[in-house]
Each structure stands twice: as structure tokens, then as C-alpha cells.
Amino acid sequence: MSGIKGKVVALTGASSGIGEATALHLAERGARLVLGARREKRLNAVVDRITERGGTAVGCVVDVTRRADLLRLTGAAVDRFGRLDVLVSNAGTMAVSPFDELRQDDWDAMVATHVTGLLNGIGAALPVFRRQRSGQFVNVASTAAYVVKSPQGVYAATKAAVKVLTEGLRQESGPDLRVTLVSPGFTDTEGVGKGASAEAAAELVRQRDAIAMPPSAVASAIGYAIEQPDGVDISEIVVRPTAQG
Ligand code: NDP
């Protein structure tokens, strides 16, 4: 199956930013969506926008750090639409801070969300994809997976893990599955600087406001990877503002 129309896509981190823009992009092109995030009100607002415009989406409150929640997300796709074509693992948190601040809860949250969360998604979707003999993983990393900038050590490490896990998965996926890494640079979302230490947040927000690209740019890149014919795997996309060094 090529194109986006009719595909069943489960997407985490759909309540704002890149996930929200991706949901709207895919819905406009006829995908059937199962949208996951923790903030139910924000998630429902995205579902409502899509359905008001004639699209198809259902919401599913999930915390990606919980294995059972990802099983519910992929299960909802199969129950409602009979299959799952794509899992977009986009949920993330950019709570960056210098190591000296010892914000160990934030370190744990980034590991749990980006690494354990991704593995929870793989664990939930892979058996479905194997049964169907088709499916696609789209994993959202960051340019931080390629270049570490202070004070983003933990964030960058978890995003580098997303990159490595994605390549490992691709190598084992065989001819029926597709595995795509999408690494955005500065993107204009509310997540930039959220939960970060004061100085880091101020700098991130300054850079975002100066150079960021719109989240629709990342949504288009994800859509491009999804719309390729079955036998074509877009393995890796880095998409960043031209002004980002
Ligand atoms: P947002 O904060 O707008 O979006 C983050 C999304 O992830 C929200 O929908 C949030 O929903 C969800 N989320 C966070 N933690 C969890 C969790 N434990 N379980 C389920 N959902 C969760 O930021 P962005 O759109 O910018 O971020 C999206 C992704 O893009 C992240 O992985 C981020 O690291 C990555 N990225 C962003 C860049 C940028 O400049 N904006 C650059 C490079 C990468 P809720 O709180 O409702 O659960």
C-alpha cells in the first residue's frame, strides 16, 4: 500500500507541537488515527479538530513509560480499524539542565520517555506488524542525537539511543517492515525549554524564537516517509531550520 490515505496510524505525543501537527497533516491526507498523550483535554481538542474537518481520529490517554498503555494504544487501532500500519513514537520531554544541578528525576523522565517509551512501542506494535506482514515504525529523535550541546547531555544521550535503537530495529525488520528515524532541529513548539533549568530554558526559547521552523515542517517529513510505496524505506531524515548551525 502506498500513500497515506486509509492507513491506520498510531501516534504518541499527539496533544501538542510536532505530534499535533503530524496528526493534522496525516488526517488531511486520509489517514485513520489513534492519538496518544497524557493530557486528555488537549488530546480531545486535537481529535475534535480532526473530526470537525471530516477526518478520522480517536484519542487514547497513554503514558508511554507504561508498557500496558502502549498495548492499549496499538490495541485500540486494531479493535477500531482492524489493523495498524504505522506507529509514530514522538512523545518527548526536553527537561535539559547542567549535570551539577543533579535533576535526577528529569534524567529518569527522559530515559523513561525516550528509551523505555520507544521500547514499549516496539513491544506493542512489532507482533501486530509481524502478523500482518507489514508495518512501519517512525521514531522521532532530534539533531541532539548527532551533536551534543551543553547542557543537553542527558537529552542528547536518550535521543542518540533512539537513533541507535532505530537502526538496530531496521536491521532486524526484514523485507516486510519499514523503519524510519526523523530527527528535527529547532521547532516552534511549547515543549522547547519546558521543564528545563531557568538558564537553559531562556536560551532555548531565545533560539526557538529566533530560528525555529514550524512543526508542520516535521509533519511533512513524517508524511513523506509514510507515503512511500511498501518496498521503499526512508531510513533517516534530518530536518532543521536553515539558520541552525
Ligand atoms: P511538545 O511538548 O509540544 O510535545 C511533546 C508531546 O509528548 C506532548 O504531546 C506530550 O503530551 C507528549 N508526552 C510527553 N511525555 C509523555 C509521556 N510520558 N507519555 C505520553 N506522552 C508524552 O514538544 P515537541 O512537539 O517539540 O516534541 C515532540 C518530539 O519532538 C519530542 O520527542 C522532542 O524531543 C522532539 N524534538 C523537538 C524539537 C523541538 O525543537 N521542538 C527538536 C528535536 C526533537 P502530554 O504532556 O499530554 O502527555
Automatic annotation (TrEMBL):
InterPro entries: NAD(P)-bd_dom_sf, Sc_DH/Rdtase_CS, SDR_fam. Keywords: Oxidoreductase. The keyword Glycoprotein does not apply. The keyword Transmembrane does not apply. It comes from the Bacteria. Pfam families: adh_short. Belongs to the short-chain dehydrogenases/reductases (SDR) family. This is SDR family oxidoreductase. The lineage of its organism: Bacteria, Bacillati, Actinomycetota, Actinomycetes, Kitasatosporales.
